[in-house]
Amino acid sequence: QVLSLPIVVIVHGNQDNNAKATVLWDNAFSEIDRVPFVVAERVPWEKMCDTLNLKFMAEVQTTKGLLKEHYFFLAQKIFNDHSASLEDFQSRSVSWAQFNKEILPGRGFTFWQWFDGVLDLTKRCLKSYWSDRLIIGFISKQYVCKLLSTEPDGTFLLRFSDSEIGGVTIAHVIRNKDGSSQVENIQPFSAKDLSIRSLGDRIRDLGQLRNLYPNTPKDQAFGSHYNSEWVGAE
């Protein structure tokens, strides 16, 4: 006899996401000598951070893992708490319900469903951009406004969409004639969108984008990701 890794049997493809969540939780947090099928209902947030990071790096096949500021955003999201500090979250524990049972406030999906969408999008379309650290990704819309509001016109950054599963959006600052500024978020791009035209080429197309935050000219940041335009169609 030998114990296998966790197995979940599903009867339809729409159960795949929940099955992956079950396997991930069981694989990461069960004790080796446990009673069969018994897994902790709550785990320390720090252990969850390690698990999400290992999963992200393995799935995307990148050596660039999640950073401290990414964990802070993810903690705010899963705990629905924007007032706690980074240190406050380190002493908390996260439940299975918060991970993949409770719907995120104002959304139609769970934390895991959202995170898994980010994994899939990054793996399929954004691996090289992420590995080059061109995507901040895990950052709130509110914090983006704080970062960009004092920057020159045309400064932009890339973040994963909060409202859609598997979307990346570009936030950029527009400086008005009176000196005031506003931050606009371009409609998120899905994996389907990016399979039609790559992220690099979309950024090149958008004339209002000038410098990747904080101050790297976009052609310098994304030039190696531009595709040669195909010419000759008649």
TrEMBL record:
Predominant location category: cytoplasm
Domain annotation SH2: ranges: 114-224
TM helices/strands, residue ranges: none
PANTHER family linked: SIGNAL TRANSDUCER AND ACTIVATOR OF TRANSCRIPTION
Keywords: Activator, Cytoplasm, DNA-binding, Nucleus, Phosphoprotein, SH2 domain, Transcription, Transcription regulation
GO biological process, one term: cell surface receptor signaling pathway
GO cellular component, one term: cytoplasm
Family: Belongs to the transcription factor STAT family.
Protein name as catalogued: STAT6 protein
InterPro entries to which the protein is assigned, alphabetical: p53-like_TF_DNA-bd_sf, SH2, SH2_dom_sf, STAT, STAT_linker
SUPFAM superfamilies for the chain: p53-like transcription factors, SH2 domain
Pfam families documented for this protein: SH2, STAT_linker
Species of origin: Calonectris borealis (Cory's shearwater)
GO molecular function: DNA binding; DNA-binding transcription factor activity
Locations listed in the record: Cytoplasm; Nucleus
